[in-house]
Automatic annotation (TrEMBL):
Source species of the chain: Polynucleobacter brandtiae
Chief location: cytoplasm
Protein name: Glutamine--fructose-6-phosphate aminotransferase [isomerizing]
Compartments it resides in: Cytoplasm
EC number: 2.6.1.16
Record-annotated SIS domain positions: 41-181, 214-355
One CC-aspect GO term: cytosol
Any single biological process term in GO: carbohydrate metabolic process
Quaternary structure annotation from Swiss-Prot or TrEMBL: Homodimer.
Enzyme active site: 360 (for fru-6p isomerization activity)
MF (Gene Ontology): carbohydrate derivative binding; glutamine-fructose-6-phosphate transaminase (isomerizing) activity
Function: Catalyzes the first step in hexosamine metabolism, converting fructose-6P into glucosamine-6P using glutamine as a nitrogen source.
Range covered out of full length: 246 to 610 of 610
């Protein structure tokens, strides 16, 4: 842990603010999409027709976002499974599946065992998305993509998560190209959007003072609910995980459409409800979910986009992200949730970089 903290109080804060650099580095030298990004052989690259992603913890949530991208952008059937479940259940292998393991460390025991299990079942197309090039997962998969987050010290993963999302997005657009869904113009446009990410992230990080103000309310809470829809539902899950990991506040995430099937019973004026509300095709549906919360006295904390008509009012607080980012939106919308968890934990005085009972890398079962 000799990495210099610089102006930051904790490694987690430093790592949150390093995300523009980490994503810029992960994208460096990429000028087109395709199998070469994953060190894959073209003839084999054309063989698989479905995907199974295996991961744990925060890496599992990046995989959950990727399922939306892979099915929507590339049209390839995709499943995501928690590694510790997959390795111990009877599954029906289809050898035309690409097995993807996602892991910051590349050493997580459950994910590694799940990879070995998949190979024992006859799967030969295997890809690792890892932050450590010398790791067991990179060695044991046929193909690999290395994220360039740099050493991550904070137990609660931040820059590793967003760089995993970038890698998984590159997989989705590369498979979209394989499917003949991309023109040279659309490829150039997607590259421009990706290269804009570091700048867009800086603008989101500049929201920190507003988020610190919200943290003052969260320190008084025992519970919090996080809502999202579509590809932002896993972002709500990740926001809830960050809050519980480092602040020890009980937090749960739901896809907003499920509110009426249970969690609405928990909503009172004591329940903050964090809502991830980008300006996408699900926004109108989400607004009616927010109305259900408001009608029960719940306090809404909404992360919206710039050109939205959601405004702060009695019982509803709104922070606007500076742009709408289209398919890349999950990479931006997770950042304020990281900051909210971080500042809430700081105010509560927890050991932010080393939360109780948790380890950075779980290399035993
Ligand atoms: C531990 C860490 C988490 C991490 C998970 C998976 O639980 O505390 O932050 O997301 O392991 O780790 P990996 O290295 O496989 O991404």
């Amino acid at each position: 842990e000799s990495v210099d903290l610089g102006p930051y109080q904790h490694y987690m804060q430093k790592e949150i603010f390093e995300q523009p650099r980490a994503i810029g580095d992960t994208l460096a030298n990429i000028s087109s999409f395709g199998p070469e990004l994953f060190h894959a052989d073209v003839s084999e690259w054309n063989q698989f027709d479905q995907i199974l992603i295996l991961a744990c913890g925060t890496s599992y949530y990046s995989a959950c976002v990727a399922k939306y991208w892979l099915e929507d952008i590339a049209g390839i059937p995709t499943q995501v499974e928690v590694a510790s479940e997959y390795r111990y259940r009877t599954s029906v292998p289809n050898v035309k599946t690409l097995i993807v393991v996602v892991s910051q460390s590349g050493e997580t025991a459950d994910t590694l065992a799940a990879l070995r299990h998949a190979k024992a079942l006859g799967h030969s197309y295997t890809l690792s998305i890892c932050n450590v090039g010398s790791s067991a997962m990179v060695r044991e998969t046929k193909w690999s993509f290395l994220t360039k987050a740099g050493t991550e010290i904070g137990v609660a993963s931040t820059k590793a998560f967003t760089t995993q999302l970038v890698a998984l997005y590159l997989l989705a657009v590369s498979l979209s190209k394989r499917a003949g869904r991309m023109t040279p113009e659309s490829e150039k446009q997607l590259l421009r959007e990706l290269r804009h990410l570091p700048k867009a992230l800086h603008a989101v990080l500049a929201l920190e003072p507003q988020i610190i103000a919200w943290s003052n309310a969260f320190v008084k809470c025992e519970n919090a609910l996080f809502l999202g829809r579509g590809m932002h539902y896993p972002i709500a899950l990740e926001g809830a995980l960050k809050l519980k990991e480092i602040s020890y506040i009980h937090a749960e995430a739901y896809p907003a459409g499920e509110l009426k099937h249970g969690p609405l019973a928990l909503v009172t004026e004591k329940m903050p409800v964090v809502t991830v509300a980008p300006k996408d095709e699900l926004l109108e549906k989400l607004k009616s979910n927010m109305q259900e919360v408001k009608a029960r006295g719940g306090k809404l904390y909404v992360f919206a986009d710039q050109d939205t008509d959601i405004v702060s009012d009695e019982g509803i607080h709104v922070i606007r992200l500076p742009e709408h980012y289209g398919n890349l939106s999950p990479i931006l919308h997770v950042v304020p949730l990281q900051l909210l968890a971080y500042h809430t934990a700081c105010m509560l005085g927890t050991d932010v970089d080393k939360p109780r009972n948790l380890a950075k890398s779980v290399t035993v079962e």
